[in-house]
């Protein structure tokens, strides 16, 4: 049951992310199918996302909720966060965060606090689908302190650094039998989701 409800919430979150993109495109008069040109270096976007996520980890654990946001750049490639949104234990919607003159370059979200109910240490396949649909890379922080990058172009989720490389929830308990691999595509994430044990 919990799995299904998480599934539905994440689908809603994905829909919200798609809707956000439309809003942002209208705000910037951006043609729908032209490739997005990003001025900032990918390594700068990644460091920025890492910093933002690390700063949200403790609150995420304490409040047992996800936080999410969109990183944008101005014409010079200077990065900023449009807005940080509060989600709940298993979902977070980006809402309407578009601003004229700022182009979205990536999304980020935390996975809330450690929970025995959810497979928190890997991205969900909806996370991946949502970033592909919005044509934005996505960054994720897990309760175990893992840092993931979702690459929308190669349609893969890649572990940037493992357990404890970001702030870790003191209640986090590793599940050695279900440790995430270093890379997933949608099919393999779906497989992982189907095979998630009810408990570690
Ligand atoms: Zn997620």
Architecture overview:
The longest helix is centred in the first third of the chain and has 27 residues, at 2-28. The chain is globular, with a radius of gyration of 16 Å. The protein has one domain (2-31, 38-194). 34% of the residues lie in helices and 21% in strands. It is built from 4 helices and 7 strands. A hairpin with a 4-residue loop joins strand 5 and strand 6 (156-161). The structure holds zinc ion (ZN). Residues 109, 111, 123-124, 127, 140 line the site of zinc ion.
A few lines on this structure:
With 200 residues, this protein is α+β, with helices and mostly antiparallel strands. The chain has helices at 2-28, 42-63, 125-134, 186-194; strands at residues 67-73, 79-86, 103-110, 137-141, 147-151, 156-161, 183-185.
What gyration radius follows from the Cα positions, in whole Å? 16 Å
The H/E string reads HHEEEHEEEEH
Bound molecules: zinc ion
* Largest sheet report: 7 strands, mixed
Which percent band covers the strand fraction? 15-25%
Placed side by side, the strands forming the largest sheet appear as 2-1-3-4-5-6-7
Helix count equals 4
Summing up helix and strand content along with how strands pair, one would put the structural category as alpha+beta
What is the CA–CA distance across the termini?
17 Å
Secondary structure tally: strands = 7
The unreliable regions are 1-19
What is the global morphology?
globular
User: What would the average pLDDT be, to the nearest integer?
Assistant: 83
Number of domains: 1
Helical content class: 25-40%
């Amino acid at each position: 049951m919990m799995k299904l409800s998480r599934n539905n919430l994440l689908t809603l979150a994905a829909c919200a992310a798609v809707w956000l993109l439309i809003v942002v495109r209208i705000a910037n008069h951006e043609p729908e199918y032209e490739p997005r040109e990003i001025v900032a270096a990918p390594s700068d976007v990644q460091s920025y996302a890492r910093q933002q996520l690390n700063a949200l980890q403790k609150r995420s654990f304490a409040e047992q909720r996800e936080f999410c946001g969109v990183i944008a750049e101005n014409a010079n490639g200077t990065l900023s966060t449009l807005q940080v949104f509060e989600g709940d234990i298993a979902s977070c919607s980006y809402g309407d965060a578009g601003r004229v003159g700022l182009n979205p370059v990536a999304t980020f979200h935390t996975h809330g606090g450690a929970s025995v109910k959810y497979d928190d240490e890997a991205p969900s396949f909806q996370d991946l689908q949502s970033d592909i649909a919005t044509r934005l890379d996505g960054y994720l922080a897990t309760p175990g302190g893992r840092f993931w990058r979702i690459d929308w172009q190669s349609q893969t989720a890649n572990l940037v650094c493992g357990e404890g490389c970001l702030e870790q929830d003191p209640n986090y308990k590793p599940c050695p039998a279900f440790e995430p691999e270093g890379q997933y595509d949608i099919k393999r994430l779906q497989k992982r989701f189907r095979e998630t044990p009810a408990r570690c």
